[in-house]
Amino acid sequence: MAKIIPFKALQYSTSRVPIQDVVTQPYDKISKEMQQRYYDLHPNNLVRILLGKSEPHDNSEDSVYTRAAKHLAHWRKDGVIEESERPSLFAYFQKFKTPGTDEVLVRKGFVCLLRLEDYAKQIVFPHERTMKGPKKDRLELLRHTRTHFGQVLLMYSDKDEQIDLLLEEIATIPAEMVVLDEHEVEHSVWRISDANQIKVIQSAMADRKVLIADGHHRYETALAFRDEMRKSESESGCESHEWLMTTMVNMESKGVAILPTHRVLSGLPAYEFSSLIDLASEYFEMLEVSDLESIESGLTSHGKERPTIGLCSEGVEHCLLLKLRSDVELPALLPTMSEQQVQLDVVILHQLILDKCLGVSERDAVDGKYLSYERGLDKAVRRVRSQDAQLAFLLNPTRMDQVREIAFRGEVLPQKSTDFFPKVLSGFTMYSVD
């Protein structure tokens, strides 16, 4: 079902540039501060292509997209970026500590080209909706550079870990590239050019469905570009635009980590803590907690029994754990949602608390009205304590099995339901559709 192939990657020449100074986080994770730091780090840092700086004089002739194309052309001409001699796959391991813990995990994946498939074919499954703005931006970059610079992160299911075992064998020799990123994640890459090893991986993937973990906008951008190329190059016989560079990871492996994304609310008109508690008590039991450690442990322990959400409010010294009452019938309260969706903590938060108790609609959430997001529980609480926000709602992470079940049913999760960690770096390998 999922067709994958090796490819002649474009890669930085490690004899010309230090790889740790030129790779970046994915474009949508690069803040203004990170962008400047990448600019300062090295003149050939990928950020100049991936997310270049806008200039006051920008126009159709001179823009972030035209400058990106010029950078790429110059770097290839100068030998800073070179094309691999042989088509290859790449083993890609990421060693990291789950944020907030001392647990060390290794996420094992491989980089390949995946044949682009429309969602309707049920080979590639999304788990969240996309927005027009990011897709328009990425499509312009792809049109100008005709190159993919980062991999879309995809998950497949393999309980026997056939591919993982092969990747572990490949990783017994020193890696071709190793980078320690700003989040203390160690990224290691090995080239896979052996025909037999490639055949084993291709055969193991032949009957797999895949789920997009990170990179929905880039996947749909690649689909749009493919459709454009089919029209303009219908008689050329070229199929390079039919493929997308991806990192494949076994969703059954222990190295898969999903972090929670906490909700922080500001600017709510006429907000009163007592009124919120009165309304929420119809659905939740209230458990008082005093510190961050108690919130984290309480979310974990009570969340194993029933959906549980943390609450921190301005003007209130203690925090609360809102544990779903045992007599609440979610299917009756949320009749338009599937049985699988209504069990998600993030759905319960948005539908029962934000909507019914605070009047914050799903449209408000999508538009970012009142609502912002924090990865760190401590940061979310700190914003309330420093009076930068009125409320923080603290969540347990969505589980991989929940994401899989909902996505493979053809449904999607609410916005910001998952945060797959760590992110796949851009710049280790690149794929030119030319």
Provide a concise account of the structure shown.
The chain is built from 14 helices and 21 strands. It has helices at 32-41, 47-50, 64-77, 132-145, 162-170, 195-205, 216-232, 273-280, 292-303, 330-333, 345-355, 362-367, 377-385, 400-408; strands at 4-5, 10-12, 81-83, 89-97, 104-115, 124-125, 147-148, 152-156, 177-180, 186-192, 210-214, 243-250, 257-259, 262-265, 284-289, 308-313, 319-324, 371-374, 391-394, 419-421, 431-432.
Structure description:
Helix content is 32%, strand content 23%. The chain has 434 residues and is α+β, with helices and mostly antiparallel strands. It has 2 domains: 4-257 and 421-432, Conserved hypothetical protein from pyrococcus furiosus pfu- 392566-001, ParB domain (Alpha-Beta Complex); 261-396, Conserved hypothetical protein from pyrococcus furiosus pfu- 392566-001, domain 2, CATH 3.30.1760. Strands 1, 4, 5, 6, 8, 9, 10, 11 and 12 form a 9-stranded mixed sheet that branches. A 6-stranded antiparallel sheet has the order 15-17-16-19-14-18, with helices on one face. β4 (89-97) and β5 form a beta hairpin. α3 (64-77) packs parallel to α4 (132-145) and α4 packs across α7 (216-232).
